[in-house]
Write a structure and sequence with these properties.
Length: 389
Amino acid sequence: MKLWTIFLSLALAGAQTATPPLKSVIGEVTSLDAAAKQIKVKADDGAVYTIDLADSTSYYHVPPGEKDLKKATKIAASDVAVGDRLLARGALTEETKSIAAKTIVVMTKADLAKKQERDRAAWQTRGVAGTVTAVNADTKEITINPHGRDAKTVVIETSLAGFRRYAPDSVRFADAKPSTFAELQVGDTVRVLGDKNEDGTRFKAEELIFGSFLSIAATVVSVNAATGEVVVTDLKTKKPVTIQTNQNTMLRKLDERVARFLALRMHPDAAAGGGPPGAGAGPPQAQSGAPGASGAADSGRPSVGAGGPRPGAANGDLQQLLERSPQLSLADLKKGDALIISSSKGADGSSMTAFSLVAGVEPFLAAAPRTAGQVDLGSWNIGAGMPEQ
């Protein structure tokens, strides 16, 4: 059960003995002022609340996953720390966004980190990600093509699954909202947690998170690093598109050897050193000395030697490979640089908020197949985000 559900359960339990106009606020502790007896909390809805403490305020600690407040441990106000997950319940003053807290329930930052690590490991070992190819409303089953080379088609049984859908402006796991089977569509990207049969062709889902994503290949027209805005030319439509980036956008620059490796693995029929006939008409080649170019050190990305990334790296999630690639600064982008940008499929075409913006993709685009002169990004699937570590 996700943290917001756990806290909601606790809030409802508290509501049995509380009287209006008590309100529960759930969020992350951003600051503490012991002298003023106040805690600042950034709530899950984005609002910032001031939690006013009193001598009568009760403080409890619960481990992640615990749903029964009766099993909580009493703590002191001094045990609350910045970064903790907190539920505060009390009388709300709407004008000042302040709550006179009667009860404080805390999940510590350290506990949350351990739980997220366990959750992430579970999604990696008991999960599958892919693109929906069929939806059967009668049996509550979907069929997916898993991401990765030579993967088998998998039928997902969802009758016992919980559903979450990515927010329109975020691909972060934590931002996903409750959803239903009815919202699933062919073409959606999904990540599923559950158990598979012996040959891996069927999967009983416990949790399913999905979204409708769009990826475009483009070249830079202009950059405003101060506002996080990039104007590009969509290589498919030949039209300008305004790209908005924010604090959740994954900005990455592929090492040239990593990009060539991806090109070779995703398009094995193309030569590693170039693309199909006519590829020279595509985006410009990588500029020497550009940030993240060959030879740049970054211990967080896949190990790269003379032969490219370590063996087996392509079998992992593209999302994981991108996350390990060097960070990109928008200020380093130049006019004509090639990008692959992923966003919500609901974007209107003239502007979009980027989930990810990846530079250094010239070798990949050169090797990508072309239809009527247009780059086919069929192999480029943004991964559905897993619990953050």
